[in-house]
Amino acid sequence: PQTGLRPGENVILSRPEAKAVATAVKKLHSNPSLRKNIESGAVRLSEQFQWTQISERLERFFEEVLSQHKD
User: Terminal CA-to-CA distance of the chain, rounded, Å?
Assistant: First the structure.
């Protein structure tokens, strides 16, 4: 199951502007519990991008496609 990006849980988002990025970095720096939460969430999120996970999803996808188009 894909979880996606969840602000405050596995990512912190900001506008692509220096001031906004600086504000986000300061927020992370000043809030250890938020930092730890994002760290552990990001590790969980990264697991779905491992090749074993990707290959399993692709295999299921192609099995489904093939089963729907049998002659």
Answer: 31
